[in-house]
Design brief:
4-stranded antiparallel beta sheet; Aminopeptidase; 8 strands; alpha+beta; 3 helices; about 25% helix; globular
């Protein structure tokens, strides 16, 4: 996110994106963004909060709100090679081999919502607050 200019950030904030923040006090613990109610554009968790389940909680929030807003149950993400395992843990699957565009490697992945997914939206009391 720090690589975006102010104009690019303003365009994203006013465009077809929804942003989700996880905060602990005045610290940003994690960030997620979805574009067009279907493409997971960002999912970042600060190093100090990795391994705490925060990525899962952010993804669950994004997914639930997107479904409530009319998403038919299909989500996509373009994952870096480094992030593929993390997205697989969230339930995403690769849809094609690794690709390269403008010198950047990425993996197209998708998540299909199950017809009757198990309910597990518990949130720990000491976890960062999401908004």
């Amino acid at each position: 996110m720090g690589q975006l200019s102010a104009a690019e950030m303003e365009q994203r904030l006013s465009g077809d994106f929804r942003f989700y923040l996880a905060e602990e006090g005045d610290k940003l613990a994690g960030l997620a963004a979805i574009r067009a109610n279907a493409h997971l554009y960002y999912l970042f968790v600060a190093k100090a909060y990795q391994g705490t389940g925060l990525a899962q909680r952010l993804w669950s929030r994004v997914k639930e709100e997107s479904l409530a807003l009319g998403n038919p149950g299909r989500f996509t993400v373009n994952a870096s090679n480094y992030a593929v395992r993390a997205y697989e843990k969230l339930g995403f699957r690769r849809t094609e081999p690794t690709r390269e565009q403008n010198g950047v490697l990425y993996n197209a992945m998708e998540f299909i919502v199950e017809a009757n997914p198990p309910l597990n939206t518990a949130c720990k009391a000491d976890s960062p607050m999401m908004r």
